UniProtKB/TrEMBL annotation:
Cross-referenced Pfam families: M20_dimer (PF07687), Peptidase_M20 (PF01546)
Name listed for the protein in its UniProt record: Dipeptidase
Enzyme class, first EC level, given as a word: hydrolase
SUPFAM superfamilies: Bacterial exopeptidase dimerisation domain (SSF55031), Zn-dependent exopeptidases (SSF53187)
UniProtKB keywords: Dipeptidase, Hydrolase, Metal-binding, Protease
EC identifiers of the protein: 3.4.13.-
Gene Ontology MF terms: dipeptidase activity
UniProt key word Ribonucleoprotein: no
Domain Peptidase M20 dimerisation: 185-338
């Protein structure tokens, strides 16, 4: 058993240097992103850690292949972070790691710098204390996950042979809640688009022209209102095509999960929850697709009829839905509106992502469950679903023929993507112990990872 001897303060001092790099992939400079990548590469010296150029922000690569005959895993994570949002809403500076009781705060501490740091320290401890890792490990950390991984597909296709592995283990993808250990067996897919309504060729004075021309905001509001039925069901014909019926067995399994709906509602400051009729809150969260209006723009707080209005839409997808079919269905639905005096356009974003699943009986899930039971004795390991999207999972399966195991020690309540992002300090040491056990279990014994062919089947 490895000994993680440095005091927590030493871990935190080291992690603070990583958090201090404002690696916001949406708008950071090339130098800033490379600085974060170099920080990671420097901690992978035992694995030939290096920064490798892509068509966008660089990736960090490394590999330790000194275990002949042992399985090979690919560890994935990302070094980029979300924008801070309003810094006025942060209790402390977002790029200064701050200890606040039993948590640390700062942008990226839980998504995904802290979870990646855990893996680095485990690998370093193996090398320092045992001189080797128990299995072959390749590392791939990208710098564009928070903007949809636009350049990862091309990079993976170009380097598929170098990155081939029997299993991908993601340090990204949070546990569901802090009160129990959990493993995610699915994540939702994603498509996004803009709806744009255009009227006159310029903004118009609402007194001089009001009542004589169509208002794009009015027209857009009508379109948006027609996307859902009053009971919460998506009103787009074809949106639910391909989704299998939720089985009685699965509904029973979800109903058995301890879930305080009143606490969930109250924690959000709401009087009522709302969603697609016929499903429980947890069923909607884990098993049903969504269509959400994320933002509407046009005009402002002044007396004008705007000449354009735009809405941004995102859909979280479940198994059975095809991203391109969902986009086509929404486009057809929107353009079917017959609106006088305006033109309507739909602008789909690139990079639709299908939903991802891994069987609860997969050897990696069994090994991960055993590792968590070792760290959290006496606690049941919950099999949950990530309601968000991790674009790389479907890509790894398509290109490398390998399933992805989510093994993050982030927790979903830790303000991911929001002001005051935090991580529980206890998760650092718990995560190190769990990753150690997982690697040992996958390397040998009843949970040994079986080699996988490039088409994804066991060899």
């Amino acid at each position: 058993m490895l000994s993680f001897n440095p005091a927590d303060a030493e871990y935190l001092d080291e992690l603070a240097g990583y958090v201090a790099v404002p690696s916001v992939s949406r708008d950071a400079t090339e130098e800033t992103m490379r600085s974060a990548a170099e920080w990671l590469a420097g901690r992978l010296s035992f694995a030939g850690g290096r920064v490798v150029a892509t068509s966008g922000h660089p990736v960090v690569r490394g590999e330790w292949l000194g275990a002949p005959g042992a399985p090979t895993i690919l560890v994935y994570g990302h070094y980029d972070v979300q924008p801070t949002g309003s810094e006025a809403e942060w209790r402390t500076p977002p790029f200064e790691l701050t200890v606040d009781g039993d948590v640390i705060r700062g942008r990226g501490v839980t998504d995904d710098k802290g979870p990646v740091f855990i893996v680095l320290k485990v690998a370093q401890a193996f090398i320092a204390q045992e001189g080797a890792l128990p299995l072959n490990v390749k590392f791939l950390f990208e710098g564009e996950e928070e903007i949809g991984s636009p350049h990862l597909p091309a990079y993976l296709h170009e380097h598929a042979d170098e990155l081939a592995a029997d299993l991908v283990i993601s340090a990204d993808g949070a546990m569901w809640r802090p009160g129990e250990p959990s493993l995610s067996i699915a994540s939702k897919g994603l498509v996004t688009l803009d709806i744009e309504v255009t009227g006159a060729n310029a903004d118009l004075h609402s007194g001089r022209f009001g009542g004589t021309v169509a208002n794009p905001l009015h027209a857009l509001s009508e379109i948006l209102a027609g996307l859902h039925a009053p009971d919460g069901r998506v009103a787009v014909e074809g949106f639910y095509d391909g989704i299998p019926e939720l089985s009685d067995e699965r509904r029973a399994a979800i109903a058995a999960v301890p879930f305080d709906e009143d606490g969930y509602r109250a924690g959000l400051g709401l009087d009522h929850v709302f969603g697609e009729a016929g499903y429980s809150t947890l069923e909607r969260l884990w098993e049903r697709p969504t269509l959400e209006i994320n933002g509407v723009s046009g005009g402002g707080k002044y007396t004008v009829i705007p000449h354009t209005a735009r809405a941004h839409i995102s859909c979280r997808l479940v198994p059975g839905q095809r991203p391109e079919a969902v986009l086509r269905a929404i486009t057809d639905h929107v353009l079917a509106h017959k609106l006088t005096g305006v033109s309507v356009a739909v602008h789909p974003d690139e990079g639709g992502v299908p939903a991802y699943t891994i069987s609860p009986g997969h050897p990696a899930i069994r090994a991960a469950g055993a590792a968590l039971e070792h760290v959290y004795p006496g606690q049941d390991v919950l099999l949950a679903v990530i309601a968000g999207t991790l674009p790389a999972t479907a890509l790894f399966e398509e290109v490398l023929g390998a399933k992805t195991l989510f093994f993050s020690f982030s927790t979903a309540d830790e303000n991911l993507h929001a002001p005051n992002e935090f991580m529980r300090i206890s998760r650092l040491r718990e995560g190190m112990r769990a990753w150690e056990q997982l690697w040992r279990l996958l390397a040998d014994g009843p949970h040994r990872l079986a080699p996988v062919s490039r088409d994804g089947s066991a060899r």
